[in-house]
């Protein structure tokens, strides 16, 4: 069958590879399966329920959930089938941002996962004239529940109406408006059509590796309201891969061992955290165990996937694999064919080590505006490179502007920004290419991202600094949790840095060092600063002298999504961090930018 609309993927799975575990969510300690057939039936019931409620083609329905769960998918397909437009929203945004998004998109109904989100939206309901009602997935006192929609559509007598409406849904129709959280300014509503996302799924499909498992499974935990994870869910459905939802970020380790997934998507920060835990365990084992662990790390530190290795190296690696790396793989479920990384650049050193440990990571690249995949590595020599994001996917054209900016044209490029034709025009070239805002180069046909165009800055000496690459190097330190390189129009680059309090405390305990109990005092402690300076000096060696971090200041607070320093995909909100810690900036430079 030909797939032209997103809900066609579900019909495709039903006909070609139905699963008893199409969608799986853990509730009260038990994994609850939803089969492909049940998925279809419940999505149809939701479609019928909405029709009976008077919901029409083109109505906007918001969805916000604290964790990924089956209800999201049921609602997503149920809405698509009757031509509704979903507005997925991050649960962590402020009430003011909810009000802005709901008013801008004229949301008619909102669906939320739990009592906390229900109260959050109820608090701004009076500010949104278009909002009729807020439904919940969990049972919440005083709130209408999603089961009411299912009950309203329980009689399949008007299924023919659903089928008739489905026929009217066109590939070019708007299917979702995704508001990018961004790092500055008001959220922008990215309009994506069925064809935008369908084309991205089908053109990415050749990069999906072959899985040894007869019935492969995926573990999903990245926010499904983000187009990266959402697009991959459609790809999983198309490939007959079972989707298992992790309970939350804290339980991923346990969930990996319970599910034994074949594939999962990650962001670099998660890989860094996983490695930090592995390193701490190996480094603290003591005696011969620590020596073997460090030897194994050294063996793969410069590993080159698909490269030629000597017989002696292979022999050493076989020993290291049996003693050390096998345990790494068991720690991530023992079945992973690969992890797919997006959102930001992954440290090349970490990528080499995970490949060397038998846990391949494939980096990809894209934006919400491109549905999202532009390019992605594949599991073969020609389509892979450490530090690269692979070759562009089929039917997507990529070229570089004179200043190196990556320009993209293809069926995956958005319809435009909702209610903002001026901004849409700003990001498109006259010959129809989307301006990504990223700087890149091609290496043997593979794309390499060098930095964000807007983040590159110049020192007072006229030297250009690309902060993201420098930050990725320093975050390899187990004592550095987050770091932001600063110094625009200053004589030298410096850094505002959030230390890894957990690892510093573990180090102090191992060294019998007593640290101050308050974090405000801890970040001023001479021994802590000397510890971090040692790593700063080490990583500085690989940088040009003009790029090296000359001074740093530690923050006593953690940088979080809720705190506003990070986006939901864990990218730095540079302006927020700079404003929040401007006193530290002044300590380094004697003034604040603009003063």
UniProtKB/TrEMBL annotation:
This protein's UniProt keywords: ATP-binding, Ligase, Nucleotide-binding
Provenance organism: Moheibacter stercoris
PANTHER family: AMP-BINDING DOMAIN-CONTAINING PROTEIN-RELATED, LONG-CHAIN-FATTY-ACID--COA LIGASE
Name of the protein in question: Long-chain acyl-CoA synthetase
Matches recorded under InterPro entries: AMP-binding, AMP-binding_CS, AMP-dep_synth/lig_dom, ANL_N_sf
Listed EC numbers: 6.2.1.3
GO MF annotation: an example: long-chain fatty acid-CoA ligase activity
Keyword Repeat: no
